[in-house]
Specification:
disordered C terminus, Metallo-beta-lactamase, Chain A, seven-stranded mixed β-sheet, 28% strand, alpha+beta, six-stranded mixed β-sheet
Length: 208
């Protein structure tokens, strides 16, 4: 588990569980809150039926949008980024840079640590710029993967992926590092042999 964060002090809450046309009335992102020390992080503040689906659960935690210090965007599709503007005081992280107010700081997301318990890795496949946030918690490593998996049942092969083999390789990397996966548009699921994988590529056991 070389990709896993060294720290185990983070905690997380799923603010709203997303869905796609096959599971809900439209398309909504799974939006998560992750905290570690003085970092208050939102992951993928994308499309939701109402912004109250994000801000309401946050308020129940005693937080407002202005308390958020960081936003992580797994990739740049609108269904995962639509509500990033709610968090105007936050640093925004993507695959290549950190954006804050009028400052643009180039940096590669690969291996970047927000804290010792919060690490970004590159996981391209759904799109070329995909990243995953790995959060070390007391109960294990939680992987916030964006649309590397849309939901617990897949799709097994991503219909919009430009490179299915690369997509599969990124999935295997996450499975090797994480205990739980939070997908882009559904509830969390275990990072084990139940995770959907293409039958045309090796399973984690076969790849070892």
């Amino acid at each position: 588990m070389t990709d896993a964060p060294h720290g185990r002090t983070a905690a997380h809450t799923i603010l709203t569980t997303g869905y796609t046309l096959s599971t809900g009335p439209g398309v909504a992102a799974t939006v998560s809150y992750v905290t570690d020390g003085d970092r208050h992080v939102i992951v993928d503040p994308g499309m939701v039926a109402s912004r109250d689906r994000i801000l309401g659960p946050l308020a129940e935690l005693g937080l407002t949008a202005d308390d958020i210090t960081d936003v992580v965007l797994s990739h740049h599709h609108p269904d995962n980024t639509m509500n990033v503007g709610l968090f105007g005081r936050a640093r925004v992280h993507d695959h290549k840079a950190i954006y804050e107010a009028d400052q643009w700081t180039d940096r590669d997301a690969e291996g970047y640590e927000l804290t010792p318990s919060l690490r970004l890795i590159r996981t391209p496949g759904h799109s070329p710029e995909d990243i995953t946030l790995l959060a070390g918690t007391e109960s294990g490593v939680i992987a916030f993967v964006g649309d590397l998996w849309w939901r617990p049942n897949g799709p097994v092969e991503d219909p919009v992926s430009p490179d299915q083999a690369l997509h599969h390789t990124s999935r295997l990397r996450v499975l090797a590092a994480a205990d739980v996966i939070v997908p882009g548009h559904g509830p969390a699921f275990p990072a084990d042999t139940s995770a959907p994988l293409s039958p045309h590529h090796p399973t984690p056991a076969e790849a070892r």
